[in-house]
Amino acid sequence: MSIKKILLAEDDLDDQVLFRSFLEHRRDIDILPIAENGVVVFDILEKIDGEEYLPDIIILDQNMPKRSGLQTLQLLKKTNRYNDIPVFVYSTYMDDKLKAECMANGALAVITKPVTKDGYNGLIDGFLKDAL
Amino acid sequence: MASNTTHIAPQADLLKEIEELRYQLQEANDTVEAIRTGQIDALIVAQGDGHQIYTLKSADHSYRVFIEKMSEGAVTLNSQGDIQYCNSSFASMIDRPLANVMGEPFIHFVTEGSKNYFKELVQEGWNNDCKGEIWLHRGDQGRVPVQLSLTALDLENGMSLSIIITDLTVQKATQKQLKDNNRELEASNNDLQQFASVASHDLQEPLRKIQVFSNLIREKQAELTPDLNTYLGKIIDSSARMRALIIDILTYSRLSAKNITRQPVDLYELVNELRCDLEIVIQEKNATITIDPLPVIPANKGQIRQLFQNIISNALKFSKPGLPPRIDISCKYLSEKSFDSAEATGGPFCVIRIKDNGIGFDKKYASNIFALFERLNTKDAYSGTGIGLAIAKKIVDKHNGLITATGKEGDGAEFMIILPVR
Predict the structure, then answer these.
(1) Is residue A13 exposed (0-12), middle (13-18) or buried (19+ Cβ within 10 Å)?
(2) Is A93's Cβ below 8 Å from some Cβ in B?
(3) What is the DSSP string of B87-140?
(4) Which residue has the higher pLDDT, B375 or A93?
(5) What span, in angstroms and rounded, lies between the C-alpha atoms of B327 and B312?
(6) Chain A residues whose beta carbon lies within 8 Å of the beta carbon of residue B205
(7) Residues of B numbered 235-294 whose beta carbons fall under 8 angstroms of chain A's beta carbons: which are they?
(8) pLDDT grade, residue B99 (50/70/90)?
C-alpha cells in the first residue's frame, strides 16, 4: 500500500491543527504543508518539481478568503497538470446548491466538516476509497 | 377726456345704484345656478317689448341634473375641439372657474406630454367610442391624472364629441401606495432571508468549534470529575440542539425564498421510502405503519418528502410510553379544497390523513402547533426544535394545499393534508 499524499487548503488555524492532530497517527497518508487559501494551493503545487511528488488527493475548504473552494476546484480542473488529481470539498455548512455546483465541477465528494476524531478518520477513509 | 365731463352723482345715489346692480347680479347668478341644477325649467324675462318666456325641454331636465350632479367631469366639444358644454365637476377638477372653461379649446387644459395622445384620442373618438388616460393641468401649477371616455353624439346643433372625465388621482395614489408597499415588503423579505441565511451559516462556524473541542475534552473523560462530565454532556447536547435549530431555520428560510419546481411524485412510493429510512426508530419503538394507496401528485419531491418525514417522525416521537406506536396513513379524493368538502372519486384534491395513537394534544392548541418555535411539550421529555411542523405548513402552503390537526390530550393525533392532485 502506497502512502497517499494529501494537500489540504484550510484558512482556519484551529481546523489546520485539528486536521493534523486527528490524522497524524495514520501510516497510510502523508499530510503536505497546509495551504491557507486557494491561491497558496497553486503556489505549493507549482513549486513541486516532478510529477510523482504531486498530491494524490486535494481537500479544499469551501469558505476561504481570496479564492473559495469551488473557485479553486474550477481552476484545478482547468489546469492540465492538475486536472487528474481527485479533489474533495469540505465545509462547515453545506447546502444542496453548493454541493451540486461542486459535483458539476468535478469534485469527487462534498462533505460537511466532522466534529470528532472518528469523524475525521472516517472522512479520510472515504476519500481514499473514492480516490482509488 | 370723458371722465372730466361726467356728472358726479352724490355718493348716496352711487351706493344705491351699486346695491341694485349687486342685487341683479345675485339674481342672475341664482338663475344660472337654478338652471344648472335643474331647479327651474322655464324663465320669464322682462324686456322692453313685453315678457319673453324661455323654456327647456322637460325631457332634458333629469339628464341635466344627472350630469351636473355626477362626480365625473362631462364636456362636449364641437368639431374644432372647443368646449361647448361643461359641468361644474370638470371645472373644479381642473380648478378653474366654469366661465373660463366654456368656449375654450379642450387641448388648452391638456399637459404638454399628453397633447399628442389626446389628439389621437379625439381623432379616434369621432369615429369610435374610446378611452384613454392623460394628464390635465390643474389650476396654475398642478396636474391631475384623468381617464377620458369619448363618444361622438349627434345633437340638435350638429355632431359633437362628448367626453366623460374621471379623476384618477386617488386611484393612482392607491396604486402607487400598493406598489411601494409591495416593494418594501419584498425588500424586507429579502433582507430577512439573507439575514437568516448569513446568520445561520456564520453561526455554524463557532458552534462547530464548540462541538469539536467539547468532544476533545470528552476523550479525556477519565481526567474529569463526575460533575464536570455532566456539565460537558450538557454542552455537547446543547450545541447539537443548536445545530439542529440552525439547520431547521435555514431550511425554513429557504422555503420562503424559492418558487418551487414540480414533477409527478408517487406519494405511496415516497412514504414507503420514508418508512425504510426510519427503520431503526420503527424497530426500536416496535411501531406499525400502514399505508393505503396514495396518488401521484405534481409536487416538489424534496419538499413533500420533508413534509411527510416531519409528520411521521413527529408521530413516532410523541408516542405513549409503553404503547407501540401505530400510524395509519389513508387518502380520499375531494371535490374542493376544504376540510368540509364532500368525498369525490376522481376529484381535483386529495386529503391525506396521518393518524397516530400517541400522546395527542389538547385541541385548543390545534392552530398553534404549526407556528414557528411552538412547543407543547418540554424539550427534556421530547427533543426537537419546534420548527418541524412550521416547515410542514410552509411546504403545504407552497403546494397550494391545506394542513390541519385534530387530537385529544392523551389519545392520539391526526394530521390532515389537502393537496391538489392535478
Answers:
(1) exposed
(2) yes
(3) -HHHHHHTT--GGGTTTSBGGGGB-GGGHHHHHHHHHHHHHS-EEEEEEEEETT
(4) A93
(5) 8
(6) 12, 63, 92
(7) 250, 254
(8) confident
Contacts of A12 in chain B (CB under 8 A): 205
Residues from chain A contacting residue B232 (CB–CB below 8 Å): none
DSSP state of B343: B
Nearest Cα neighbor of B189 from B235, B242, B253 is B253
**Of B379 and B80, which is predicted with more confidence?**
B80
Q: For residues A103 and A110, is the Cβ–Cβ distance under 8 A?
A: yes
CB contact (8 A) between residue B250 and residue A95:
yes
What's the pLDDT at B2?
A: 44
Architecture, CATH, for domain B177-257: Orthogonal Bundle (1.10)
CATH 1.10.287.130-classified regions of chain B: 177-257
Class of domain B260-422: alpha beta
Please report the ipTM that was assigned to this predicted complex. Answer: 0.81
**How far off is chain A from B380, nearest CA to CA, in Å?**
24
Q: What is the pLDDT of residue B103?
A: 87
- pLDDT digits 0-9 by tens, B16-74: 888 888 888 887 777 767 766 666 666 666 666 666 666 555 456 677 778 888 889 99
How are beta strands B263-266 and B296-299 bridged, if at all? antiparallel
Which three cell numbers, joined as nine digits, stand for B375?
412547543
Outline which parts of chain B fall under CATH 3.30.565.10: 260-422
Helix (H, G, I), strand (E, B) or coil at B220: coil
Q: How confident is the model at residue A119 (pLDDT cuts 50, 70, 90)?
A: very high
| Burial class (CB within 10 angstroms; exposed 0-12, middle 13-18, buried 19+) of B294 | buried
Q: How far apart are CA B256 and CA B243, in angstroms?
A: 20
Chain A residues whose CB is inside 8 A of the B250 CB are 93, 95
Mean pLDDT of A14-43: 93
CATH superfamily of B70-167: PAS domain (3.30.450.20)
User: What's the rounded Cα separation, in Å, for the pair B338 and B347?
Assistant: 12
Dist. CA A58–CA A41, nearest whole Å: 9
Number of domains forming the structure of chain A: 1
Instruction: Kindly report whether the global pTM for this prediction surpasses the value 0.80.
Output: no
B17 versus A90: the higher-pLDDT residue is A90
Distance from CA of B279 to the nearest CA of A (A): 23
Domain containing residue A124 = 4-131
Q: What is the mean pLDDT of residues B130-135?
A: 94
Q: For residues B288 and B271, give the distance between their C-alpha atoms in angstroms, rounded to a whole number.
A: 13
Question: In chain B, which segments carry CATH 3.30.450.20?
Answer: 70-167
Which residues share a beta bridge with B163?
B75, B150
DSSP state of A109: E
- Return the CATH number at A94: 3.40.50.2300
- CB spacing of B208 vs A95 below 8 angstroms: no
Cα gap A112→A119, rounded to integer Å:
10
